[in-house]
Amino acid sequence: MEMTTLVFVALAVMTLLGIEIITVIGIGAVALTLLTDQFPLLNISMTMFDALDLFPLLALPLFVVTGDLIAAGGIAAQIMRFSQSMVGWIRGGLALTTMVASGIFAAISGSNAATVATVGRVVLPEMKRQNYDASFSAASVAAGGVVGIIIPPSVAFVLYGVSTGVSVSDLFVAGLLPGLLMVAVLCGVAYIIGRRRNYGEVTPFSTRNAVKAAVDTKYALGAIAIILVGIYSGIFTPTEAGAVAAIYCLLVALFVTRRLKLRAVPRVLADSARICGLVVPIVAVALVFSQNMTMLRIPDLFVDGLLGFSDDPVITLCLVVVVLLIAGSVMEAAPNILILAPILTPVASGLGIHPVHFGVILVSALAVGFITPPVGINLFVAAAVSGASFSQIARFVMPYVVALVICIFVIAFVPALSLAFIKTS
Fold first, then answer.
1. Residue 52 falls inside a structural domain
2. Is 369 within 8 Å of 390 (Cβ atoms)?
3. Which one, 79, 123, 377, 392, has the greatest CB density within 10 A?
4. Is the residue at 424 inside a domain?
5. Whole-angstrom Cα distance, residue 348 to residue 358?
């Protein structure tokens, strides 16, 4: 056990030093394989292959490419116009528009970074024209991107389902109401700040403009309908829905909006492949890492320790949420899900929490890490898109962080939000 502890200390140090996470987990997988003495090193390559040879995992690249096709095909601009017609007339309306548009975009792309980059490019120039503070604008865009992995479809839910065996379709259904709650909370914060600082131009609400914007957004709404209705009705699996949505968005971009030229399609696919090339290898080595931790009974020891800390399930659940919030602030969501889900899901079972509900808790809590330093990937993306400094964005994003943390505890202690449309018997 001393050697195992030493390995984990070394991995923590490497993570804090900024070494690539795939390298850290890969070294951990090799070290634990040698410590268990149960498998030859050849097992690592075999397990990595088996980890990727899963039909549900195909949904990951399909939803990534769908998001990229939306951005390239001009559908994102339609989403922004529709969102602005609905809430842009309120004081601080562009900040609220950002949140609503992020929620809609999330319902197609399933990616937080893609949501931040795409929405940011469209809304930030207009926020600058209306004299919004640049750091607040960037912070709002970063915060809106949090729902990118909560509102279905969600790449994070695919990873959770793959690592725990929970139905990805059920996770998609369960994420809808919590995702909408998070959008509403973010809108509330944006409204309060916008009103106090007198941000933006107030224009009268126009039913005519709202209807026209809704009609213009029909192609984006069509993509959402394909994904959500297809999955919820049982017509498609999440993977099949991703494939159909990708083809739909490609055809719209090429032949309807005509914003995407045929010669540019390979570039879009290459951009999507780069993102998948970062995530998928992490999935492979993380599952090897998890397998070896199971052989060393580390999840069992963690469960016993956490459940033994207090007899009160409320306190234990609060501790789990705090662990997830801290983990999300120091490491990216994908490796966190693949490492922590197999460890913490038994803890949740011991507390009587439905695995689908716990999946929503876990992903939602880790999502807050997207806007929490030092990792805060959304903050980096927002800084790159806006030109504002990381430190200033991190300061302005804190009201959103506090509101989302409160929201996570509501999601954790109100299971009906996650299980309202799930058969739990």
1. yes
2. no
3. 79
4. no
5. 7
pLDDT per position as a tens digit, 361-381: 999 999 998 898 876 778 888
- Tens-digit pLDDT string for the chain (425 aa): 577 778 878 887 887 776 777 788 888 888 888 877 766 777 778 778 776 777 667 777 887 788 778 777 777 777 878 888 888 778 888 888 899 988 888 887 767 777 887 788 888 888 888 889 999 999 999 999 899 889 888 888 988 998 888 988 899 889 999 999 999 999 999 999 988 888 877 777 777 887 888 887 888 888 888 887 887 777 888 888 888 888 988 898 898 888 888 898 898 888 878 777 777 787 778 777 777 777 777 766 766 776 677 778 888 899 899 989 988 887 778 778 888 888 888 888 888 899 999 999 999 999 998 898 876 778 888 888 888 888 889 899 999 999 999 999 999 999 999 998 887 65
- Tell me what pLDDT residue 229 has: 82
The answer to whether residue 269 sits within a structural domain is yes
CA-based torsion, 227, 230, 234, 238: positive or negative: negative
The parent domain of residue 223 ranges over 2-419
Give the Cα separation of 252 and 257 in Å (integer). Answer: 6
Cα 96 to Cα 133: distance, rounded to the nearest angstrom = 15
Into how many domains does the chain fold?
1
3-state secondary structure the chain: CHHHHHHHHHHHHHHHCCCCHHHHHHHHHHHHHHHHCCCCCHHHHHHHHHHHCCHHHHHHHHHHHHHHHHHHCCHHHHHHHHHHHHHCCCCCHHHHHHHHHHHHHHHHHCCHHHHHHHHHHHHHHHHHHCCCCHHHHHHHHHHHHHHHHCCCCCHHHHHHHHHHCCCHHHHHHHCHHHHHHHHHHHHHHHHHHHHHHCCCCCCCCCHHHHHHHHHHCHHHHHHHHHHHHHHHCCCCCHHHHHHHHHHHHHHHHHHHCCCCCHHHHHHHHHHHHHHHHHHHHHHHHHHHHHHHHHHCCHHHHHHHHHHHHCCCHHHHHHHHHHHHHHHHHHCCHHHHHHHHHHHHHHHHHHCCCCHHHHHHHHHHHHHHHHHCCCCCHHHHHHHHHHCCCHHHHHHHCHHHHHHHHHHHHHHHHCCHHHHCCCCCC
Is 425 within the bounds of a domain? Answer: no
